[in-house]
Amino acid sequence: MAAGTLFLVAAMVTAALAAPQRDNPKDATILEQENDFNGVDNWRWSYKSSDGSERQEVGGIVDGFLRTIGNYIWKSPSGQKYSVNYIADKDGYQSKVEPIEEKVEPPKIEKQLLLSPNAKLSLIGR
Predict the structure, then answer these.
(1) What residue stretch is flagged as signal peptide (predicted)?
(2) Tens-digit pLDDT profile for residues 41-56
(3) Looking at the domain assignment, is residue 107 inside a domain?
(4) 65 pairs with which residues across the strands?
C-alpha cells in the first residue's frame, strides 16, 4: 500500500510540474529579427522587442582582424532609455552611452476643427 501511495504522490507532483507555464505580460517578445550570417562572410543581425529594446550589429574581417560595429537601446528600471554605440576591433572595445530624450509632441489640431461653421460665418460678417 505504501508503494502505491508513493507512486500516486509522485505522479501528481510530476503532473503539476509538467503543467504549461503562464506567460508573464512583463516579458518582452521579439517583434522583428534579422540574421544574415553564413559562417564565412561578414555578418549583420538585429532585433527589436516589445519592451522598446533593440540592437543592430555588423562585423567581419578588416585588414586581417575581426571588427564589429553596433548599437543597442535599452530602458533602465527608472524608465530612462539609453543608446550604446560600440566598436570592437584590434584596438579593443570602445563604447559611448547616451541617454535618449523622448519628446512628446502634442496632437496636431486642424484650425478648421477649432471653429464651428456658424463661428466662421460670424468672422466674415454674415
Answers:
(1) 1-18
(2) 888 999 999 888 899 9
(3) no
(4) 62
Mean pLDDT of 44-72: 91
Strand partners, 55: 47, 72
Residues listed for the chain: 126
* Residue 123 parent element (H or E): helix 117-123
Residue 8 resides in a domain = no
What is the rounded CA–CA span in Å between residue 34 and residue 60? 17
Position of cell 508513493? 6
User: Is residue 116 in a domain?
Assistant: no
Residue among 57, 61, 55 at smallest CA distance from 41: 61
Structural contact between residues 57 and 34, judged by C-beta atoms closer than 8 angstroms: no
Is the Cβ–Cβ distance between 88 and 110 less than 8 Å? no
Kindly provide the b/e burial profile for residues 90-110, where b requires at least 16 CB atoms within 10 angstroms of the residue's own CB: eeeeeeeeeeeeeeeeeeeee
Closest CA to 69 of 99, 38, 44, 106: 44
